[in-house]
């Protein structure tokens, strides 16, 4: 189980049709990495949040760190940022780079009396609290998956570049006494894929626009050599997490090699009868992702490569159905963390997922010109529908039941999904809750959920979406970009359960990006059909005055604009040649 196995900018608010990252970020300088799409960009700190000394005795010229430079030291550098230590005071400073990034830091030092390397302690943090923390303790700061708290040596008249983690904040402290260190720059080295934002979303509600872009940016951060779930933790290919991430990739970036590369890795790492990541539902998500990938891009050659594994997986799954048509899956039984201790919810969700998987399998077998297998798997799905799970009270499993027709959409929306607003949500399954609300026709309600839940993270200073978010934790909590005063809660360090206790909690988790594809699909109304050959446009603006945006297709970028006029929606479409449009 994701993390059971652990125990076992500035938001990128770019309201344009196509945006490239480097101009947006205002990088000082950049290098191409070894991979063709990967770029390393150097960023200057945006502000100084804290310093150990305000007297100008131990820390001098700190504001020079905020000035853009070249990253190159020189023998005649003057008035540099200066750290002076004694036995009694070893100075430290906390920097804010303005947004969550993936990478490390480059520290450059000028000439000083001693030519011995300078020892500095670095503490990276996704929040101010994490950057100010020590390893361990009740708030659970860790060096797991990626080092974020360690000591380095900086050379005399030279530079050092270290670190590979997810962070926004960096604290630096002098380790030894009697040091006099002139520092030219402390630049973040930001590593990302240099790809355009082909998809976009803009509406009359700026908060929704910001949420769409934050979801897109969160997934972009995780598009490293593989598609990870988190850039600080776990930095792994978790297949269930990939489903909302891949939907975001489809919506924002179009066809990108990181998706098939990651899907193939998961397939090859887990030969049958193993479940992917040890979790039966994650093997089902793998097949469901392939259905979506083919639907959006129509790559029959790639789908054909999966044929033998898909058939073997579906045949294996069929052996876990009992005489009452009930799933009896073994391995780790998991939907998401909030439902993990509720067996009735897990069963309800897995039963729905089995139906989804066999229906997808039937569809894909027909695409692969295997109609006999298409009929076989469709019959299995129909068998599974004969069993109606009882006793579920969770929004997550209820959403899956609505999506598969095991539960009435409108009744479930009123009696389960909308109860207590956005309490008992999860960032992962929030996407499927939105999908279920759309099936119930409650688009205004879904927009409110997006604004209240994902917008709640923005209100706390988030520049990427989190692994988990409980709206009840907001009470008496400070923003992640502020020091925590006495009597207030640290939204990062004081909360969390399961594997995301305290600072171990990931603040850039791709599975939380659900509003991005949802807004494009349901508000802009862009639904891809027939292996990407056709797009059906059915907008749902709710109370929005207008919504417009772009969407990557196999033929090029589609652009749409919808405006409410006297209770009717007027639509303008600019479609690339070859793309069939249905209304």
Please characterize this protein's 3D structure.
The protein has 583 residues and is of the alpha+beta class. It has two domains: 20-193, Galactose-binding domain-like (Jelly Rolls, Sandwich), CATH 2.60.120.260; 200-467 and 506-529, Alpha/alpha barrel (Glycosyltransferase). The protein contains 16 helices and 19 strands. Strands 1, 2, 3, 4, 5, 6, 7, 8, 9 and 10 form a ten-stranded antiparallel beta sheet that branches. A four-stranded antiparallel beta sheet has the order 11-16-17-18. It has a three-stranded mixed beta sheet with strand order 14-15-19. α12 crosses α14 (430-439). The longest helix is centred in the middle third of the chain and has 25 residues, at 343-367. Mean pLDDT is 94; it is low at 1-24. Keywords: Signal. It comes from Aggregatimonas sangjinii. InterPro entries: 6-hairpin_glycosidase_sf, 6hp_glycosidase-like_sf, Bac_rhamnosid6H. This is Alpha-L-rhamnosidase.
Beta-strand content estimate: 15-25%
Mean pLDDT figure: 94
**Ends apart, CA distance between termini:** 42 Å
Task: Fill in the CATH topology of the largest domain.
Answer: Glycosyltransferase
Which structural class do the helices and strands define?
Answer: alpha+beta
Which bin fits the share of residues in helices?
A: 25-40%
Tell me the CATH architecture of the largest domain. Alpha/alpha barrel
CATH class of the largest domain: Mainly Alpha
Count, helices = 16
